[in-house]
Amino acid sequence: MSNRYITSHFPLISIVLFSLAFAMYSQTLILNELAKLGLYEGMREFFSENGIKLTLLFLLVLFFFMVFSALKLIADTIIELSMLFFSKDEEGNELNKAKAGSSIYLAASIIALLLSSELLLLIIVFLGASLIYFIYLVYKLTDAFHPAGLIGMIFFHMIFWSAFVVAVAYAGLKLYNSFIASLPL
Mean pLDDT in the chain? Predict the structure, then answer.
């Protein structure tokens, strides 16, 4: 039997690497926009070029780290809630079997770091890793569910994440529309 703590650090490393990949893309985008607007040259009068890049990268990594950490916290809570509602496993032993699936995110985060120049590829890698992890999770936890419970768990996750994405998109759209409406035209 292997030590389950060998892979316990994989989620943290995955979050850091995904954060770095998205931050590198965002940094390039922001620096290009600042240069187009003519602000970058003014900033270089106060900071060195490397200072600007490192500070911006640090802040972006911190931002994406918080986003991915929050998503992991939400995902872990939803998984455990679905186990509470639909599983016949009361001890939590079955969920421990699925912890090795964090290596899926670790591999995907390394790939994302290599593809950090393309936003679409970064998103595809992250969503692909999430889908593969969910399939792995369902496969590993099959023994802990009755057939109806397994279907319930799958629909519970689909409904929650769909509602979450729609709510975030709606809030973003409302904010964007209020911003556009407040511009003097």
Answer: 91
CA distance 25 to 20: 9
Side-chain-side CA neighbours of 33 within 13 Å: the count stands at: 6
Q: Report how many helices (DSSP H) and strands (DSSP E) the chain contains, helices first.
A: 7, 0
Task: Scan for tokens 């593809």, then name that residue.
Answer: 115
**What are the beta bridge partners of residue 87?**
145
Mean pLDDT across the stretch 158-181?
A: 95
**Is the pTM higher than 0.85?**
yes
Spatial CB neighbours of 132, under 8 Å, sequence gap ≥ 6: 104, 108
Contacts of 41 (CB under 8 A, 6+ apart): 35
Q: Say whether 42 sits in a helix, a strand or coil.
A: helix
Q: What is the pLDDT of residues 125-142, one digit of tens each?
A: 999 999 999 999 999 888
